Amino acid sequence: MSSVARPTTQPQNPCFSSGPCAKRPGWEPSALAGALVGRSHRSKAGRARIQEVLDRSRKILGVPDDYRIGIVPASDTGAMEMVMWTMLGARGVDALSWESFGQGWVTDITKQLKLSDVRVLSADYGNIADLAAVDWTRDAVFTWNGTTSGVRVPGASWIADDREGLAICDATSAVFAMDVPIAKLDVVTYSWQKVLGGEAQHGMLILSPRAIERLETYKPAWPLPKIFRMTKGGEFMEAIFKADTINTPSMLCVEDALDGLKWAESIGGLPGLIRRSEDNLVAVAEWVARTDWVDFLAEDPQTRSCTSICLKIVDPWFTGLDPEARAKAAKGVSGMLEAEEVAFDIAPYRDAPPGLRLWGGATVERSDLEALFPWLDWAWAEVKAAAR
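RESULT FIELD:
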């Protein structure tokens, strides 16, 4: 047994998963009572609900009027695959990677699409690729926030306004929590399951006029599945971005997405959402500053995520262990707190270094994080004492 006393106060909501994420404060299943279950998504009422999701999302995120926004299949992954398979190959590509999802896009570009003119700009976990090295005569593919490394881009000044290529951004753990200047991007993808705590499987795709031009003027050399196609006869399919989805969405999930958007509006829209997320990061930073066994995985404070907050264990005893023992010790902390029903799903992503990952998006209450910190200290002390 360790000398650290077992805490007595628990978080009211122990859900700290990085996806699907915590539901908004006060959420209950009754919020979905008005869902159009059993109704066609192509009915007048169904289309109205879908269009309401698009309209509220556009307003909160400040999507420019000439940009299209639509719901697409297969979550953020589906949205990114649609974009890469239909737009890449027209010119060279700079693919940026500093964590597993960015590396996944690199793999798609180099090993699946097998494009010949690709530059991979990468960095290890905790760091970020050399953003200044991006050549904007080429297309650029990047994540705004590395969900599995807790590293985000430090603003948008590195994105050229006079670029010739497309800026293609996977922003799934960034939108609704960070200042993502959509007007400086050509493609933005995300899913409902992150910052607003929505359900999985539905992706969102935002396209600039330049992205639409690419779709209408470039035909890939490879065949495209139906769920990837956004043009017909060489013309952009506007209907997809006017509530006429490619495949059948869940009207239950649509209702849940609307609930999250309405909650976002009730707390002040995007500024309120960003404030809550950044405040959660401050809370974690204050705990890290007074804690000697843990630190941020993101080395530069300017690149630390306020949503997927990734932590590394720096206790000398831990760092002296072999890799297998380190992984076991880190899992011991998350497993112990899950057993106590204090914190669910705080283990790092499977490809990330052993440590902890706390979701700090807007649906998480700072008070719940503050209630969690003593439990983290207790669990670490217990794991360490049991192993020595």
